[in-house]
Design a protein that fits this description.
Layout (H helix, E strand, L loop, with lengths): L6 H24 L2 H10 L1 H16 L5 H31 L19
Helix pairs in contact: 2-4, 3-4
Length: about 110
C-alpha cells in the first residue's frame, strides 16, 4: 500500500515548513542570550512531542518508504536535540554549583590599635 501525496497537499506542507523556519529564526533572534539556555531546556518537552509524532508518522504509513525514511530521520534529529538539550542544561546547572565547601570568612582582627 503506497501512500501518495497530491500536489496541493505537498505544496501546503512545504509552505508550512517554510513559514515555520521564518518564525523560528525570528523568535530565536529576539531571545536574549542570558535566557537562551533555560528556554532551550524547556523546549526539550516539545522535542519529546516531536519524537512521538515521528513514531506515529512512521508507524501509520507502513507501505511508504518515503514516509518511513522521513519518520526515522525526524526521530533521530529530535532524539539528538533532546539529549543535547539535557546535556547543556546539566552543564549549565553544574556551573552554578560551588566547587568547594564554603569556608568560614576570615575574621577581622579585633582590637587593632593605632
Amino acid at each position: 500500500m503506497e501512500t501518495q501525496l497530491d500536489a496541493a497537499a505537498l505544496i501546503d506542507l512545504i509552505f508550512l515548513f517554510v513559514i515555520s523556519i521564518f518564525l523560528g529564526v525570528e523568535l530565536i533572534s529576539k531571545v536574549p542570550s542570558i535566557l537562551h539556555t533555560p528556554l532551550m531546556s524547556g523546549s526539550n518537552a516539545i522535542s519529546g512531542i516531536t519524537i512521538v509524532g515521528a513514531i506515529l508518522a512512521t508507524g501509520l504509513t507502513p507501505g511508504s518508504n518515503f514516509c518511513t525514511v522521513l519518520g526515522v530521520l525526524a526521530m533521530t534529529c529530535a532524539t539528538i536535540n533532546v539529549v543535547g538539550g539535557y546535556l547543556v542544561t546539566d552543564r549549565m546547572l553544574r556551573m552554578f554549583k560551588s566547587k568547594l565547601p564554603s569556608s568560614p570568612r576570615a575574621q577581622p582582627s579585633a582590637g587593632k590599635q593605632k
